[in-house]
Design brief:
alpha+beta; 2 domains; 7-stranded mixed beta sheet; about 20% helix; about 35% strand; globular
Length: about 525
């Protein structure tokens, strides 16, 4: 396991930026002192305060015309305590010493009310003190400094040439922005101040054929990113190329034949495989799911703790890492919501399950050492829960390119871009579609097919991993809508993958399946 991010490393990541003054100048230290002093005086053995502001902006353009625009924020604080091994939490929508002290008192009272229901006390894994650290994510241009009219103008400029194409009937463009600011303090002496921005542009073209054969869509492949406005201007993704090919791609999809079901060798591009990693590996190796704690929202996990260190998750080519430090990763922070310095670690090594995603409670409970920094809350009113890191399949240093993988397949499909997905509550049986499937015949691409979905069980699918691409085939994609917990919380998370080859995978025709 790699060591935690040091204070020097965290400061280096700042890149000269500072947390916005209108957040940093709030009475953060005074609120922390009031909350922690009140919790200590009422008998808490552990207490932490989190001041959090989340700013959200969503903008939609339909056929070149602005259809909706939202820009709002929420600010508040949350106090979490341990009293005689029992959790208590309270959140409030204001910041200041009085509000913080009141929240601490409410949290202690809740812990005492819950005590008769608790059968085993909570203990937390040890963590060094990290005092006075400030971290700002790696972005250059704050997207919230861009006028709303300029945001709309960008989406309109993207839409206009697509609407001019005879192949395109409608164009839907959406931009989602988030700025997250957090201050954390606990009784041990840790204090952290962090800020990051997240951006997600999506553009979808719709083709409605005159012959009534049914509409088809095609979407940009560019992922969400923990980046600034510069990302939308072409730093980190070639949006011009992504957009330019959409009319031809959707036209080809309209004319494409329906897939013949059967077993195929699949060359899966990173733009599709990231979502399969998210659902079949990322969620499955969240330790709260494996322990049965996260059962009500999308289930538990087949990857139970008795299998740690012995269970064969996939072929020996399968090496998966969890990483809360990856540059521009959507789950990247220097410190989590328990004051833990984030790190990177192995989850699957040579096909064997060797690690989980942890918070401090579960790390201590299972004797796994320190937490790997996976506690997170999406707003001040929510208690931190174990959330997914950036979980990525590692490339082989001398691995092949995507083109090389295609050239080695006699009969198969190239799978590009994510679309719909379905997976059971144990993260075991699944089915995935894609933006596009291409036939591979004799090592060459032979045009798109439609109505396809690949299915399998997690261990059998990953056991069929026959080739892993090299670093030049590696891409990072992401989700902005990962849901968990009750009340529900959302999170952004990235997943990297190289191009890959899976052999003998079952492919369905979704039209035929839907008619049964």
């Amino acid at each position: 396991m790699n060591g935690p991010v040091t204070q020097a490393q965290a400061e280096a990541q700042d890149r000269g930026r500072r947390v916005d003054a209108d957040f940093g100048d709030l009475p953060l230290a005074a609120s922390a002192d009031a909350a922690l002093d009140r919790a200590r005086s009422l008998g808490a053995s552990h207490a932490d305060l989190r001041v959090q502001r989340m700013r959200h902006a969503d903008l939609s353009v339909r056929d070149g015309a602005l259809s909706s625009a939202v820009d709002d924020s929420d600010l508040g604080l949350g106090v979490r305590v341990l009293v005689d091994g029992v959790w208590g939490f309270a959140g409030i929508g204001e910041v200041g010493p009085d509000a913080a002290a009141a929240a601490a008192q409410e949290a202690v009272e809740l812990a005492r009310v819950c005590a008769p229901l608790v059968t085993a006390g909570v203990e937390l894994a040890d963590e060094p003190v990290h005092a006075g650290v400030e971290w700002v994510g790696p972005y250059r241009l704050d997207p919230f400094s861009v006028e709303q009219s300029d945001r709309a103008a960008l989406l309109q400029s993207w839409s206009a040439p697509l609407l001019a194409s005879r192949a395109v009937t409608h164009v839907d463009a959406r931009l989602r922005l988030v700025k997250e600011q957090k201050f954390y303090a606990d009784l041990a002496g840790t204090t952290t101040l962090q800020q990051r921005v997240l951006v997600e542009p999506i553009l979808t073209v719709v083709a409605v054929p005159d012959d009534g054969s049914g509409s088809q869509t095609m979407r940009t492949l560019g992922p969400p990113s923990a980046s600034g406005w510069e990302y939308l201007l072409g730093e980190g993704w070639d949006w011009a190329a992504d957009l330019a090919e959409l009319p031809d791609l959707v036209a080809e999809r309209v004319a494409a034949p329906s897939v013949e079901p059967g077993r195929y060798d699949l060359v899966i591009a990173p733009s599709n495989l990231w979502l399969t990693i998210h659902e079949s590996v990322g969620h499955a190796t969240e330790l709260d799911r494996a322990l049965g704690y996260e059962a009500a929202y999308a289930g538990t996990s087949f990857a139970t703790v008795d299998r740690l260190g012995t269970f064969r998750y996939g072929s020996e080519l399968m090496n998966v890492r969890g990483d809360r430090t990856a540059e521009h990763g959507c789950a990247t922070l220097a410190y989590d919501d328990e004051g833990v310095a984030t790190t990177a670690w192995d989850i699957i090594s040579r096909g064997i399950l060797v690690g989980y995603q942890l918070d401090r409670r579960m790390a201590r409970e299972q004797g796994l050492g320190r937490s790997n920094g996976c506690a997170y809350a999406d707003c001040a009113a929510r208690v931190p829960v174990q959330r997914m890191a950036n979980v990525s399949l590692q490339p082989l240093p001398a691995g092949p390119s995507l083109e090389d993988l295609v050239a080695g397949v006699e009969r198969g499909l190239l799978v590009v871009g994510d679309k719909s997905w379905s997976i059971d509550m144990q993260r075991y049986n699944f089915q995935f579609t894609a933006q596009r499937f291409y036939r591979i015949v004799g090592g060459r691409l032979a045009g798109q097919v439609k109505d396809a979905a690949y299915q399998g069980s997690t261990p059998s699918f990953w056991a069929s991993l026959a080739a892993v691409g090299g670093p030049r085939s590696y891409e990072v994609h992401a989700a902005s809508n990962c849901g968990k917990a009750q009340p529900g919380q959302g999170a952004w998370v990235s997943h990297g993958a190289p191009a890959t080859l899976f052999t003998g995978v079952n492919v369905l025709n979704t039209l035929q399946e839907g008619s049964r």
